[in-house]
């Protein structure tokens, strides 16, 4: 009887001998990052006040590069393309910083000079009396415009309604306010009530 030869056991396969399949996309990105990281970081660092900001912006730039890897030109156009991405990332960062600084300045002024920023009307003026006679919905709308400086899109977000509804309600509120300003004091509440019940707001 012929015996089948027994092959020697080669032993367990080490983890280092197992290689993941090649990923050309990942390889290209790692090559791109290694070749251009320092140049892009220098570009950002020269235009920011903080090394931490530059590092964060670098990460954002290369995140966009990863997502748009297929759009990146090859050769000498690669770095200018990355500079363009970094420039837009930096512009967005500066806009955000500008808004934050403006808000901080405004809050400091309001906290240190409360009397100078009081935009409410004295109670004894004709306008204040007419305003107080308006329905609550009209007062809120006019306050958002006059005191908070909001536009129709922002008011729509605040109130949870459409921009068209804001325009209609605001037009009616201004019309009622104008009518109350010219109405005799004794008749203002009556005028407001008639205006409120004669219109169905959007």
Q: Give Rg in angstroms.
A: 33 Å
Could you state the order of secondary-structure elements as H and E? HHHHHHHH
What is the number of helical segments per DSSP (H or I, 4+ residues)?
Answer: 8
Question: What is the distance, rounded to the nearest whole angstrom, between the alpha carbons of the first and last residues?
Answer: 99 Å
Oligomer: single chain
Task: Tell me how many strands there are.
Answer: 0
What's the helical proportion of residues? 55-70%
What is the 3D form? elongated
Low-confidence stretches: none
Structural class: mainly alpha
Averaging pLDDT over every residue, what do you get? 76
User: How would you characterize the largest beta sheet?
Assistant: none
Strand content: under 5%
Question: Mind explaining what this structure looks like?
Answer:
The mean pLDDT is 76. α5 packs across α7 (163-182). With 202 residues, this protein is mostly helical. The protein is built from eight helices and no strands.
């Amino acid at each position: 009887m012929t015996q089948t030869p027994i092959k020697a056991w080669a032993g367990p396969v080490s983890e280092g001998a197992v290689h993941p399949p090649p990923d050309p996309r990942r390889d290209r990105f790692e090559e791109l990052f290694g070749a251009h990281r320092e140049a892009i970081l220098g570009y950002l660092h020269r235009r920011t006040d903080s090394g931490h900001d530059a590092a964060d912006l670098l990460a954002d730039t290369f995140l966009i590069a990863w997502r748009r890897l297929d759009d990146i030109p090859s050769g000498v156009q690669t770095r200018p393309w990355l500079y363009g991405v970094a420039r837009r990332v930096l512009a967005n960062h500066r806009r955000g910083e500008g808004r934050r600084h403006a808000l901080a300045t405004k809050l400091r002024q309001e906290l240190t000079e409360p009397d100078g920023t009081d935009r409410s009307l004295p109670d004894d003026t004709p306008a204040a009396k007419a305003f107080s006679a308006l329905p609550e919905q009209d007062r809120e709308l006019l306050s958002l415009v006059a005191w908070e400086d909001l536009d129709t899109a922002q008011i729509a977000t605040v109130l949870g309604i459409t921009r068209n509804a804001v325009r209609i309600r605001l037009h009616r509120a201004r019309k009622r306010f104008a009518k109350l300003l010219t109405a005799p004091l004794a008749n203002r509440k009556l005028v407001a009530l008639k205006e409120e019940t004669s219109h169905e707001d959007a």
